[in-house]
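Archive entry. Fields below.
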Amino acid sequence: MGEVRVRAGRQARQAERAHKGQGVGRPYILRNIPTYDVLSEENLIRIEAAADRVLAETGIEFRDDPVALDHWKTAGAKVEGVRVRFEPGMLREILKSAPSEFTQHARNPAKSVRIGGRNVVFSPAYGSPFVMDLDRGRRFGTIEDFRNFIKLAQSSPNLHHSGGTICEPTDVAVNKRHLDMVLAHIELSDRPFMGSVTAEERSEDSIEMARILFGAGFVNDHCVILGNVNVNSPLVWDGTMTRSLRAYARANQAAVVVPFILGGAMGPVTNAGGIVQSLAETMAGCALTQLERKGAPVIFGNFLSSMSLRSGSPTFGTPEPAIGSQVIGQLARRLNLPLRCSGNFTTSKLPDGQAMMEGTMSMLAAIHCGANFILHSAGFLDGLLSMSYEKFMLDADLCGALHAYLDGIRIDDDQLAVEAFAEVGPGNHFFGCSHTMRHYQTAFWDSELSDNEPFEKWEAAGSADAARRANRLWKKRLAEYEAPPLDVGVREALHDFVGRKKAGVADAWY
Amino acid sequence: MGEVRVRAGRQARQAERAHKGQGVGRPYILRNIPTYDVLSEENLIRIEAAADRVLAETGIEFRDDPVALDHWKTAGAKVEGVRVRFEPGMLREILKSAPSEFTQHARNPAKSVRIGGRNVVFSPAYGSPFVMDLDRGRRFGTIEDFRNFIKLAQSSPNLHHSGGTICEPTDVAVNKRHLDMVLAHIELSDRPFMGSVTAEERSEDSIEMARILFGAGFVNDHCVILGNVNVNSPLVWDGTMTRSLRAYARANQAAVVVPFILGGAMGPVTNAGGIVQSLAETMAGCALTQLERKGAPVIFGNFLSSMSLRSGSPTFGTPEPAIGSQVIGQLARRLNLPLRCSGNFTTSKLPDGQAMMEGTMSMLAAIHCGANFILHSAGFLDGLLSMSYEKFMLDADLCGALHAYLDGIRIDDDQLAVEAFAEVGPGNHFFGCSHTMRHYQTAFWDSELSDNEPFEKWEAAGSADAARRANRLWKKRLAEYEAPPLDVGVREALHDFVGRKKAGVADAWY
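PREDICTED_STRUCTURE:
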C-alpha cells in the first residue's frame, strides 16, 4: 500500500497534464467555458435571506441522532427537542472550514479526480431498484447487473468515476450488499468510487474497505471514498443519514449532501421556494460535517424536480429544474463549496426520444450550472427507478460530447485561420488545404453511437435506431472487458474482511 | 385591407400584453433569462479583427449581379472583377442603419411577432426535399405534405411562425411552387410567414402576394414577409441570392442572411475559423441590404456545422457548433442586429434518442445564444434532408418546454414561500397547503407528449414510445384542424394572382 502512494506522485503529475488536454479519456475535465449565471446578485441575496429566515424561524429537525443535536448545541444553535434553529449567518460561518476543492484518490493514481473549482467529474447514475434492457425488459437489479454496470463505466473513456449503488443488487441481503458493492467497485474498476450510507455501520464498513485498499494513514489524510446522503425533505434530517454523514466526515471522507425535492410534494410548488429549501437543508447538512470534523471535504448537493399537474406524477428533465439548477450553482459558488447538481433524468420507460430530450436538457443544466461532481450522468430511465443498459451507453456518448462542449473554443491565430482563407480563396473547398490537414484529426468530437451516414447507407445496414445500436455496443463492451490489475494481497485482505463481516450474520431483507 | 390595419392597433396592444405572460400560446416570447456568453470581449475583438482581415485581404466574390457590384463601388469598397474587398470597419458603419428590432406583421395582428432584442420566435424547419412518417417511411415531399405541416404548425401553441419552405413540394413545378407555398401559408395559417428566394422574380411574386394581403402602402412601411438567403460559402455571394436579398430589402422586407458552413468543407475545420468566415459573409450580406434600401430590416443569420472525421459525413447537433453558436450570438449583439442562429438539428433517420439528443443540444444553443428568430425549430431529421411528422411534434413539444425555460425564475416573497415552510413544518407534505393551492395550476410546464406515468400504467396502456405517441398526435391534430378565417376578397385576389402567374407558363422542373 506504500507503493500506491509512491506511484501517486508521478502519476498525479501525469494526470495533471492529461486533464488539461482535449478529447475523451482524461481522468476529469477542467472546464474552459464559464458557468451560466441566470440570476442577479440582488436576487441571490434575496434567496439567501429567505433561507436564513426558514432556518431561524422554522428550523430543521434532526431525528434519532443525539450526537448531532449535541454538535448543534455546542455550535450555538437553538435546540428544542429535535428541532434546531439557526441564527442568520451561523451556518455560513461554520462552512468556511470546508475545502472549496479536493482530490478524490483512485487506486490507479492516474485516475484520481479533482472535485470543486473548474473541475467536472462524470459518475454513473445511483440507486435504481430495477434494471432494463431491450432484450429482457424491466426486472429487479442483481449483483450481476451491478457488476456489469461497473464494467461498462470502467470501459467508457467518457466517464470518470465508478459511482456507488449503480443499481440495487436486490439478490444480496440488505445488510450485506454494501460489502459486495464496494468489493465490486474495487475489483472491477480502478477509478474513484462511493461507499454505502444506508446505516452507520455500513458506512464504516465501506470506509474500512477503503483503508484496506489505500492504507489507514493515507485515508485519514486523503479523500478516497464518497458517501451520498439524502435529506428527508422538507426540513428533516433523519438519524440514519446524519450518522452516515458523520461517519464519512469523521474519517475525513466526503459526504455528498443532497435534498431531493419534488416541488409541490416535499417542498413548495414554486421554483424559488424549492431553491430556498434546498439551500437551507444542504447548508445544515454540510455544516454538520464540519462540526464532526473541521476541514473534512463535503459536496454541496442538490436535486430539484417538478411534477405533472395533470397526473401528480413526478417529472424529470423539465425546464423549471433546469433553470433552478443554474441558480443553485450560483449559490454554491457563493458558499465556495464543490457542487453536485442535476444529471441525466427522465421519466421515459424506454431509451427513446423523450428519454434523450429530457436527459440532454437536465444534463446540460448540470454542465451550465458548474456542477463539479455529476452523479447520475448515465443510465437512468423510468423516473430514477430503472438503470437501462442502452440508456447508459447513450448517456455515456453524450458525456463524450460534453467533453468537447466543456473545452469551449480556442482563439489563437492558427485557429482563426486567416491565412487559410487566403490559401483557399472564394468558392473553393477546404478539404485538402494545409490548415485542414493540420487540424482535422482533433477538430470535432466523433460520436460512437450517432449514425451520421446518408439515409441509403443507414437503411442498407438495417435501419437500426439509436437504442438498437446501444444494445449492440454494451454487449460488445462487456465481451471485451478486462479487469484492471489489483494487488493480490489487497484482494485477499478485502475478501477476508467481507467474509468476516458476513460470517454468522443472518440475512436481512429490509 | 384597410380593416386589417384598423384591427392591428387594438390587437397589437393585446399581443403586447400577452407576450409578457407565462405559458404557451403567446405570439412570441420575451426572454427573461440572460444570454450565455462564452467568450471574453478581448477574444470577440480578435475574431472581429480576423474577419476584418479576411474581408480586406481575401474579400468576397459577388457573382452575376452587376447592381450589387455597383452598390459596393458607390459605398467605397475595392471592386476588381467580381471580387470585392472592404476596408476594416466599413461594413460595421453601413450596418448602423439596420434596425436592431422590428415587427413582422401577421394577417392576424394578435399573432404579429417582434424580432430582435429580447424576443424569441419559433419557426418550423425549412428546405427538406423529403418527408417521413412512421407509417410510410421516407418519400419526396408534396404540396399536400407542405400544407399538412402548415396546419400542424398553426395548431401548435408552442410555435409562433408559419415558416417558409417547410418541405419542398416536389410535385409542383419549380418555377410555380413559390406561388402555391405562399398561398398555402396565407390560407392555412394566420401567423407570419416567409416567401420564396430561389429567383428574383419568385421573391417579387412572394412580396406581391403579401401586398395583396396587407395592402401595398402597409407593406412599404412594415415588414410582413421574410426571405431566407444563403451565402455560397466560402466567400461567394451568388447572383440568385443577392438579387433576392435586394428584392426583399427594396420592398422594405427582411432578408435572413445565412452562411451554411460545414467546417472542413465550405470553411476552416476549426470552430474559430468558421466563426470568422460566418461573420465576414453575413456582415457583407446584411450590409448589401442597407445599400439597396437604407433602414430595411435584416436578420443576421448563421449556421455552423461539423463533420464526422471517420466518414466525412456532415454532423449536426454536435458540441462544437453549439459552442460556436453562442459566440455568434455575442458577435451579433455587438452589431446590434436581430439574430437567427442554430435550431433543432440531427443526422438521425428516425425520431429516436439520437434525434432528440442532438436536437435538444442544438436547440438549447439557439436559446442560450440569444437567437431571436429560430428557423428550424421543429421537424428536421436526416441531416436536414427530411421533414418528419413525428419529429415535428416532438420538437414542438420541446418548444413548449423552452417557453418555461425562457421565462426563467421569478423571485418575490410569494415565490420564495417562507411562510409556506412555517405553515407546513418539517416532515410534512406540501400537497394541500395554501401556497401550493395558489400556484399549482401554473407552476410547471406540462408536456403533451412525455409519458410521466408509472411503469405499470404505461405498460398497461401499450408501452408506446415517444415516436409512436407523436404519430398519434399529428394525426389527431390534422383531423381537428380548422383554417383561420380569411377575407373572401383577399382570397379571390390571391387566387387570381396565382392563376395569372401560372397561365401560359411552361412547367420547369429544375
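CURATOR_NOTE: Confidence is low (pLDDT under 50) at residues 1-8 of chain B.
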